[in-house]
Each structure stands twice: as structure tokens, then as C-alpha cells.
Amino acid sequence: MSESLSPLKGKEVLRKLQKAGFNVIRIKGSAHYLFHPIKNRFTSVHIHGGQDIPVPLLRKIVIHQAGLTIEEWNQL
Length: 76
Known about the structure:
Strand order of the largest sheet: 2-3-4
CATH superfamily: Hypothetical protein
Low-confidence stretches: none
CATH class: Alpha Beta
Number of helices: 3
Order of helices and strands: EHEEEEHH
CATH architecture: 2-Layer Sandwich
Number of strands: 5
Strand content: 25-35%
Helix content: 25-40%
Shape: globular
CATH topology: Metal Transport, Frataxin, Chain A
Number of domains: 1
């Protein structure tokens, strides 16, 4: 079975990253900057009202910046 990502609202992405152990370290405008103390990784999520974060950007946040697999992401 192939795992895939689907577009999500910025608030839902933020909620999932917090469940994965990331902490919001600062907010500047619509940008929420997060840090994971154990993995020593930074990422940011921009929350623009009800707009979805597109899949290519979500993939960069989840896999490249947060260091999570798609399977781990979908289980959150």
C-alpha cells in the first residue's frame, strides 16, 4: 500500500507537528517557527486563514525539515 500526503490546513499541520514533539519557539505574523529538542530540527508553518498547504510544500515540511516519514505523519 502506497502512503501519500493530502493537503491540510496550516493549523492542522501545526497540531500534528506538536504531537510529534515540536515546540513553537516564536510567531512572527503568519509564520510559526518550531523546534524539536531531541532531533535538533527546525521548521516553520505559515497559517493563512482557511487555506490548505499544498502537497509539495507539505512534503518539504514533513520529510525534509521535520525528518518524519509519511507513515509516521499519517499516524499522528
